[in-house]
Write a structure and sequence with these properties.
- By secondary structure, the protein is an alpha+beta fold.
- It has two domains: 13-55; 60-204, Jelly Rolls, CATH 2.60.120.
- It has one helix and twelve strands, in the order H-E-E-E-E-E-E-E-E-E-E-E-E.
- It has one helix at residues 16-54, and strands at residues 69-73, 84-86, 90-91, 98-101, 104-107, 111-121, 131-139, 145-154, 159-169, 175-182, 189-190, 197-204.
- Strands 1, 3, 6, 9, 11 and 12 form a six-stranded antiparallel β-sheet that branches. Strands 2, 4, 5, 7, 8 and 10 form a six-stranded antiparallel β-sheet that branches.
- A hairpin with a 5-residue loop joins strand 7 and strand 8.
- It is globular.
- The N and C termini lie far apart (89 Å).
């Protein structure tokens, strides 16, 4: 049997209400496409900004001679699914009076430093064992723990967490480490320049304790 044109005929809307409804649907689809395009553009812009910072890794001339600073992120290959050190192995931006070694930032000057760390905890479907405990550790040159600041997240959804703290060290060579103490086996702490960051900023060379 032949296929007639009438089988693909769609009658026009019978009322202005029907017409308005169709227009609303078309506009909604258009807005959805626009939103998706805007999201893509935003992601591309963020990627360009991050790449721009890495291009400045050797530009210590951009830092004040009085300001020692350094920042690093964990590569995607450095994501972990168990407890232990979360390694920040990739420099992002210029560094002065500090350097990366073994996934940690090494402070090359004594005195007061501000420390900032960010991690991304992936979601889990497990109804138990939801606590994620992690900390910023400052290790003495011999590897012993000198100072710690802890954060605990309880929940199954994905979450970005930050620790902001400060430390006074008496000598150069102290190490800033991010350590995960409690983590459900199989749950990810993800790496990536947009998810993770470890930053140190030298405030003064005094060894007086901060207020």
């Amino acid at each position: 049997m032949g296929v007639g044109r009438d089988r693909f005929y769609f009658p026009p809307p019978s009322t202005s209400t029907d017409y308005d409804s169709m227009v609303d649907k078309v506009e909604g689809i258009s807005e959805g496409i626009a939103s998706a395009e805007e999201t893509r553009q935003i992601r591309d812009s963020v990627g360009k900004l991050q790449e721009g910072q890495e291009a400045l890794n050797n530009r210590t001339d951009l830092l004040s001679p009085l300001l020692d600073y350094g920042s690093a992120y964990a590569s995607t290959a450095n994501g972990i699914t168990n407890t232990g050190q979360f390694s920040y192995s990739n420099q992002i931006g210029p560094m002065q009076a500090c350097h990366i070694a073994n996934g940690r930032l090494i402070l090359e000057e004594k005195g007061l430093w501000n420390l900032s760390a960010r991690i991304y905890i992936d979601y889990t479907v497990s109804p138990i064992g939801l606590d994620v405990a992690w900390e910023v550790r400052v290790l003495a040159p011999d590897g012993s723990i000198f100072s710690t600041t802890e954060d605990v997240y309880t929940g199954g959804s994905a979450q970005t967490r930050e620790i902001n703290t400060s430390v006074v060290v008496p000598d150069a060579g102290y190490q800033v480490q991010v350590y995960v103490r409690t983590l459900l086996v199989g749950r990810w702490i993800r790496g990536g320049d947009h998810r993770s960051r470890l930053t140190v900023q030298h405030i003064s060379r005094s060894t007086e304790s901060p207020i």
